[in-house]
Amino acid sequence: MTTTFPCTSISIMLLQLLLVVSILQPYHHLAAHALKVVIAGGTGRLGPRVASQLKSPQHEVMLLSRNAFLATAPNRVTGVFGYVGASFLDNNPHVSVRDWDGGDLTDIVGCDWMGWQEDALVGADVVLNLVGGYTEQREMATERLVKESLRLNNRQAVQITVSPNEEDIKTLTPGAVSLKKKRLERCEEMVKQNCLYSKCLRLEAFDYETNAAKIVEAVLESASA
């Protein structure tokens, strides 16, 4: 026996379907497959927040740190280097921390930095640059990430670099503001001119939760493009 529906019932069903689609629409473009995400400067304030949100579906996140030993110690022993802590890794088994040279081979701190390029960049889907500071080291780190990624990753990982809004630079680090702005611009240009897939984000200072959410969306969106 054939079941028939009144026109009003069909209309209601269509409206319900459209409602579901509208709810899911903002997320339809996000990556549905597992990603390998590398985060340079990943043990600062933003890195752990971003990494903890990249859990599903089984994403792999590697945080690059200039001193992985101190960054993952049970308790923080210095404010010089970034810190995530042993408990963070216990609660986020998809995250690992790896020493790297930070772009400056004359000022290496970590003990196990050799080979970071192969461990981190081979097969990476996204390379996220959260390296802070406004010295020449920031440019050196960006150059190192771009060069090594191009050398080792035939798939051309998406390169995402994150910087503060120009108006926030003066608040974050007074003095030589023009020079610092130019350094940020050079980092962004380096990525745009050399990488097939890139994205440069400018975010408001201090709003860590909102910024982390924006970065996560950019990671997933870029990887699925």
Question: What's the arrangement of secondary structure elements?
Answer:
Blueprint: H1 7-24, E1 36-40, H2 47-53, E2 60-65, H3 68-71, H4 86-91, E3 95-99, H5 116-121, E4 126-129, H6 136-152, E5 158-164, H7 166-172, H8 177-194, E6 198-203, H9 208-224
Helix pairs in contact: 2-9, 6-8
Indicate the mean pLDDT: 86
Strand content: 5-15%
Question: Strand order of the main beta sheet, please?
Answer: 3-2-1-4-5-6
* N-to-C SSE string, H for helix and E for strand: HEHEHHEHEHEHHEH
Give the helix level as a range of percent. 40-55%
User: Gap between N and C termini, in Å?
Assistant: 47 Å
Largest sheet: 6 strands, parallel
From the alpha-carbon coordinates, what is the Rg to the nearest angstrom?
Answer: 21 Å
What would the principal axes of the Cα set say about the shape?
A: globular
Q: Pairing-aware structural class of the strands and helices?
A: alpha/beta
Total of helices? 9
